[in-house]
Amino acid sequence: MNQWLDERLHISRLNDKFLRKAFPVHHTFFIGEITLFSLIILILTGIILALSFEPSNAMVVNSFDPGTPADPNLVPAAYHSALKINALPFGDMFRRIHHWCANIMVAAAVLHMMRIYFTGAYKKPRELNWWIGMLLLIFSALTAVTGYALPYDNYAYNTLKEIYAITASVPWVGPWLAEFAFAGRFPGEGIIPRFYGYHIMLLPGILLALTAAHMLIMIKQKHTQPQYAKRIAYKKIVGVPLITQQTPIMIMLALLFAAIVILFSAYVPVHPVEHYGPPSSQPIEGIKPDWYLLWVFGLLAIIPNTLSFDLLGGHFSAEFIGALVLPMLVIGLMFAVPMLDRAKDNMYYAENPTNHPHRLAAGIAFLALLIVWSVAGYKGELVANGYLPSASANAILWGLSFLIPAIAYGLTLAYVSAIRRLRTADEREQERAMVYGHDD
Amino acid sequence: MTRYKVKDPELTRRRFINVATGATATVGVMSLLGTLGGAHPMFRMTEDKKPPMEGDILVHADPAKEGTPITVADLGTTLVQAWPMGTDAEGNKIIRKGEPNNLLAVYKFAAGELSGEANVEATIDGQVVAYSDICTHAGCPVPDAKDGNGMFCPCHSGQYAPKQGGIVVGGPPPHKLAQLPIVAEGDNVKVAGFFLTPPYPYTDEATWEATKEAAKGA
């Protein structure tokens, strides 16, 4: 059969070009694969969910609790179909798998980026893939956000209202932009069909295209080689080929990953739509975005309201600065990494993070800053439980935003220099042992 | 043998292709803009989307008793959420909740407790006061603070003092909660006019004035 196919499709060329791609063997090189597996599971479960979802916010009678003919219990169709999905065999399970995979995908992408950052793998020639990776991260977060709008329960409704407010806070064009993106003034009749379109067509399309580009560039440029490859065969590509050695590892990992996600989903429920109920005027106690957007949320909570100004007829509100300008600076900084830290020659080998203490320390300080801002997202709870005084909570949290990253930076440098001192001491010891023999 | 002299063409191939590509791209983008225009629907101010209007009756917004008129006896120092209820041209009762930012917060404080920026003229006997219940920061509905100290927005920790005219006492909100002038009508609470200051989502007087005119005219 191979020959039959080969004569028609030249699969041996495909084999030579792509299927023999060498994969370095190191556990951190599997994090990116986990991101890919999450995407595949998300697409599969998403297709199943889309078969039963009704993308409309028109009001329908709730068939689970119809009320009386005179006073019917009307709920949005999208919310109603979410209830129906929950009532299907395995319906709730698919929702949970979809939800957990979305969170894991972003988490795995972040860990994958950390590996790239700390080993300097973004340097020449791989800058392009770092930028495509950044776009993948941004579009993953956008896809996730449009996704949790779809059940259209009170939580989704309040979240959407807030994202609408953030969009409308853009100077000059904000209100127009928000009405354009949300299909009319909030909550317009077209809002759920619009977000359904974004979530199942537009954004996954972008994600798949970017993923394909990411993979092709990776195959073309090859992985950075782990340090051990230098010792085995200098400047040669070391690793196991995709077919046949890497494939079984990948399949095993994918199955294991799917099993863990399903196990997780079986025991940890997600977003109970019944609990929140259909959209209403009731505020939601402790409403928070998903963890990867918590830092923006925290930033909004501590930004002072005095930070607003008018310029050339446009209004720059504190909300615009907190929810769009500062996060864009943060994201811009991440985009700029390959330009801030450049290599003259093409990189072959992943660098040992301890050989680049300032890069390592800067990365850790950056993560510490995002963690401080995420904690600031709990400002309300912190104040209510007496951990922070109400009056100076903002000042304290802003102080910590500078202090904690600075401490993290200093500690990392100290830690790295201690490691290096031990390492050189070890080397000296070994040299001495080589010459004079061991003491014992 | 005939010799043909090749004349310089008036238009080179490269130039022709560039012009053709440019023209196609222009037409394409123009028609695409038309499609995108359809993605931005018109806003129509229907009765249920008008802001609270003079003569509206305040009704409960709590889903359990939504639509029942609020009586002064229902009110106290804890928040009561309300919708304005008006009538359309045929005299049918319309709860104006098509615009979710019409949500109102109604309180009744002891006489003399209202101070600061509260407009006592616009309250009932200086005791019953109504504000917009929508946080001026990101548009979340604002509940009472759990510690009993004014109002606290769960979204980004905005704090308001309803006894002092709904002013901001903490957090990121840029404006105070807009006060709605009310009068008593029997046991019920009637709206006496538009919000005294621009409510959420209006950030400037001009657009708020335009909305008021549109609501009056429609």
TrEMBL record, chain A:
Record keyword DNA-binding present: no
Organism: Deinococcus piscis
Cytochrome b/b6 C-terminal region profile domain residues: 229-427
InterPro entries linked: Cyt_b/b6_C (IPR005798), Cyt_b/b6_C_sf (IPR036150), Cyt_b/b6_N (IPR005797), Cytb/b6-like_sf (IPR027387), Di-haem_cyt_TM (IPR016174)
Pfam families recorded: Cytochrom_B_C, Cytochrom_B_N_2
Assigned keywords, A-Z: Electron transport, Heme, Iron, Membrane, Metal-binding, Transmembrane, Transmembrane helix, Transport
Name of the protein: Cytochrome b6
Segments crossing the lipid bilayer: 29-53, 97-118, 130-151, 163-183, 195-219, 249-270, 291-308, 320-340, 360-376, 396-418
Record-linked PANTHER family: CYTOCHROME B
Top-rank taxon: Bacteria
Cytochrome b/b6 N-terminal region profile domain residues: 1-227
Cell compartment(s), UniProt: Membrane
SUPFAM superfamilies: a domain/subunit of cytochrome bc1 complex (Ubiquinol-cytochrome c reductase) (SSF81648), Transmembrane di-heme cytochromes (SSF81342)
Record membrane topology: Multi-pass membrane protein
From TrEMBL, chain B:
Keywords assigned by UniProt, alphabetized: 2Fe-2S, Disulfide bond, Iron, Iron-sulfur, Membrane, Metal-binding, Transmembrane, Transmembrane helix
Domain Rieske: 123-191
PROSITE patterns hit by this protein: RIESKE, TAT
SUPFAM superfamilies: ISP domain (SSF50022)
Spans through the membrane: 20-43
Keyword Transmembrane in annotation: yes
Domain of life from the UniProt record: Bacteria
InterPro entries, alphabetized: Rieske_2Fe-2S (IPR017941), Rieske_2Fe-2S_sf (IPR036922), Rieske_Fe-S_prot (IPR014349), Rieske_Fe-S_prot_C (IPR005805), TAT_signal (IPR006311), Ubiq_cytC_Rdtase_Fe-S_su_TAT (IPR019470)
Cofactors demanded by this protein: [2Fe-2S] cluster
Homology family: Belongs to the Rieske iron-sulfur protein family.
Protein name per UniProt: Rieske domain-containing protein
